[in-house]
Amino acid sequence: MSGPVRVLHIFTEMNLGGAESRIMDLYRRMDRRRVQFDFVVHMKKPGYYDQEIRELGGQIFSWPRLGPFNILQYIRTAGRLFRTHPEYRILHGHLISYGILYHWIARKNGVKVRIAHARSSASEKNFKGLITTLMIRPLKYLATHYFACSVPAAEYVFGKRNVRAGKVRIINNAIDASRFRFSQEDRFRIRKELGLENRWVAGHVGKFRYAKNHTFLLEIFKEISLRKEEAVLLLVGDGPLKEEMARRAGVLGVADKVFFTGERSDIPALLSAMDVFVFPSHYEGLPGSVIEAQASGLRCFISSAISGEAGITDLAAFISLEEPAAIWADQILTAEDQPRQDMTEAIAAAGFDAKTVAMELQDFYLHATTQKDREVLL
Questions:
Q1: Which residues make Cβ contacts (< 8 Å) with residue 206, sequence separation at least 6?
Q2: Residue 265's pLDDT band (boundaries 50, 70, 90)?
Q3: Which residues are 175's β-sheet partners?
Q4: What is the topology classification, in CATH, of domain 5-174+353-368?
Q5: Could you report the per-residue pLDDT of 325-369, keeping only the tens digit for each?
Q6: How far is the C-alpha of 52 from the C-alpha of 142, rounded, in Å?
Q7: Which position among 246, 247, 277, 305 has the lowest Cβ density within 10 Å, counted as fewest Cβ atoms?
């Protein structure tokens, strides 16, 4: 009897990011006798999920980070992996910015099924973002299958024509909703740990990067704090703009009310400790953190720049980024308080149950390598 179908996933690193956490939720629910995941990362330092991946039977390969002076090294390293591991008939690429290169190398080495998975609906408005936008254009000619977490992400990477033609498969950023069920015990424990007893907590979970728009989030919170003395802001995550945002909080005069937790693995407990969730991103594919917040029964106030697909319950409200911070604060504070409810069934009904999506993806992998079922989009 032959072994499982082995799928090679391409990431930057396997840390606590949204895409990484979503794929791990699916990996845990696969029948690993039939489908097994392996991973390519572009960091030498260990990732948060590395040990679990190996315990689940997966392998992790390290490739160099791509730069202008190591393209040949990258090609040699990637080519060597495909030549020495002919069992990889499926490549699933989540790192879109490098996709033009590793999809080309995979095709050259006979990998028949090459999936490009779009997870963002835009790039930063700088030189790096321009290069990324240019590099993703050829993906539609190198990948054989197009996946996306939302319609805007699909249109950004693969074009509206391919979306209209039904050539892009939307894979929901599914979660294990039961893990995020509100817990009064966790709420009390986290608030005590962070010194937030008797405080009103606005929260946010996300990397400190341009897309998340922490600058505006701090302005919104300043307006909230002027209206609600007991308000604090809980910022969960890490990233290159974290120190800048800490300084910005000082400039706005709210540094003593803003709590930076750093990267945490106990997101469900932290969500239980919050009173509202504020998410004013410039752009997203489809933010898993917003799905998690709704699963926790939190009222969510979200930028209308994000696809309405993220509003999977009536807990989500969308506000334009063109509205000033004061309007955001008013809408957040005038929203009717609601008791936290078990949203597990609502999340599943919206199509964001990890077990259901895992089985859908497993079925795709099992059939994609057969000539009859493979749809080549070239």
A1: 212, 236, 237, 279, 281, 287, 289
A2: very high
A3: 353
A4: Rossmann fold (3.40.50)
A5: 999 999 999 987 888 999 999 999 999 999 999 999 999 999 997
A6: 31
A7: 247
Q: Can you read off the two tokens belonging to residue 292?
A: 């998690």
Neighbours of 356 (CB within 10 A): 14
Burial classification of residue 113, based on how many CB atoms lie within 10 Å of its CB (0-12 exposed, 13-18 middle, 19 or more buried): buried
Residues 6+ apart with CB under 8 A from 317: 299, 300, 301, 302, 311, 331, 335
Q: Where are the domains of the chain?
A: 5-174+353-368, 177-349
Tell me the HSE value of 120 on the side-chain side, using a 13 A CA sphere: 18
Quick: pLDDT tens for 181-239: 999 999 999 999 999 999 999 999 999 999 999 999 999 999 999 999 999 999 999 99
Percentages (nearest 5) of helix, strand, coil residues in the chain: 45, 15, 40
Summarize pLDDT for 121-175 with one digit per residue, the tens. Answer: 888 777 776 777 787 888 989 999 999 999 999 999 999 999 999 999 999 999 9
Beta bridge pairs of residue 299:
276
Name the CATH code of domain 177-349 (choices 3.40.50.2000, 3.50.40.10, 3.40.50.2300, 3.30.450.20). Answer: 3.40.50.2000
